[in-house]
Amino acid sequence: MRPLWQIPRDCLFWLLVSVIISIGLHLGHLPPWVALSGIIAAGWQIQLYRERWRQPGRLLKWSLAGACASGLFLHYGRFTGLEPMVALLLTGYVLKLLEIHHRRDALVLIYLSYLIIILQSLFSTTMVSSLLVLAALLPVTAALVAMHCGAENSRPATALRTALTITVQAIPLMLVMFIVMPRIGSLWAVPQQNSATTGVSDSMSPGDMTQLGRSGKIAFRVEFDGPIPEQSQLYWRGLVFSGFDGRRWDQQGPWGYNDGQFLQWSNQPQETWDQVITRRGAPLSYRVTLEATNSPWLFALSTPLSQSSTVALSRDFRLVNREPVISKLQYPVKSWLDNQLEPASLPGWRKRLELAIPAGFNPKTVEIAQQWREQTPEPLVLMNRLLALYNQQFIYTLRPPALGKHTVDEFLWGTKKGFCEFYASSFVFFMRAAGVPARVVVGYQGGERHPTENYLLVHQYDAHAWAEVWIEGRGWLRVDPTAAVAPERIEMSFADLFGEQDDFLSASPLSLERMRHIRWLNSLRLKLDSLDYAWSKWVLGYENMQSDFLLGLLGEINPQRIALLLLLAGAIALFPVFIMLYLGREKNTRDELDRLFLQYCSRLEKIGLPRQPGEGARDFAQRISLLAPGLAAALDRLTQLYESARYAEQSGAEILLFKKALKVFKPSRKDLLIRV
Fold this sequence. Notes:
The chain is of the alpha+beta class. The chain has 22 helices and 20 strands.
């Protein structure tokens, strides 16, 4: 017999499977060596169970823990942030495999497995990832079942079937909770570490957009109320950079502005600075479904106005969410593509901000810009002269050479090869050096039109940087230097332009986008994306309309009615479970002879002569005959018929004889009065 403290074999099997699957769910955001550590720890535990290896000593365990912690710090540079914290938890989780000796250790690892699996939802809530999370719960539940079943000769499949049954039974209740339970905010918010691969960052230096150009991840999807505009009009504005330190562009102050209220919320009166925007014509209406960025800035076309109370228009004409976007977010927007921004004048401090250049950087560009301004005092003519230089001498490439301290000098008068951020940065610096206010805008440009569902997919490789130049009387004008070098980048899809290059999507090696030239694979990719988008719209859309749904269903939303609805919906959800338990109960398998014999015993019990536990038919009859001699003959006859029917051939004729004899057997208390 197995000791109570020992871990069952089936439990250990499913526990190891759970650890491997849990790590696999997080491969996309884990250092590879963490996954390798998990595989090594699982292999060590297998050898321990086979009694081939010994338990690791305390010194080895502490050394491994210290090495893993040091590796995480070197990889992330800190322990704060979502990814470092999850990686730290996963590291401790896999190292726990090296010290499971008792059932309580296995239980701790099982409970941790549930937590690790659910944490995947912080990184992705797509339909595929949700199904993977649901499937990953099966082996963990199987380990929990195997821990408590206690069967020595059970098989792993038995525990898995039980786990599957439990999971299927829980799905209706899960759906009820999703539909009925009111949505609440996160109990905690853990910031993710900012990195170029997660989207547009809050600063820009040479090479940042180039890295995004190698990622095929979805940034956001857009569904228009009408036709999708032309590719050249799809400039998705995200951030405005006015500060420059010689290499890196960033925002300023509480995003740079102090002339009155910086944010204008949709449910509040318009700020005075909104009058500097001239909106013409009919607005373009659309809905953006943004992937998690852990940043508050949103993306929209020019001069946007959001219809959401949690989204504001900023002083530099972009959208800002009230909280960082830590999960998928959907927001409706209206934009006026025909507009004018601040045409009259700029405040003095704003003009100084948009003309500032760092001292001691790019002296050659400063000198040439001032010479050109003397030769070409008209800003528009100067701007066109610089764009013509780009068009004639520069190359647009995903593999730009590295730049040193004087980034603009080295690019404009040296390498002349770069990606969009090289052109936007050099253009804005040159215009500022020439005395023309200018700034960098980053976001995304274009997108992929879904051929059947009429929505737009914007990928990370669509990340783009362009410039805005202020011209007195005309306001802020969008200028895209990249369009002067490679107009096809603006007119066609980025994937169509760079899809044949070897380093296209090198940061997403498993993306189906790499196989877009294979028709059936590309069709499969688009169908999967449409399913995922439909899932996102359903989940996010229901969250937005849940209060209306509950109000229409209950008439009034209050705790009493919510509780009653939960009880009723829970009872309906659990009804199939009740049916399964009822149908699966142990059924009465007594045959007709047993039922007749029980009637015989019941009649004797009614007159005070019950059958004793474990008492056979012959012994019972003999004992009763002593207490009631008047029944002796009938009892002997019934016993003979019962034994003949039970232990002989059990023919129907013998059972019928027993039934007829029982029919006339009617004992009474008067039979007890006669004593021998």
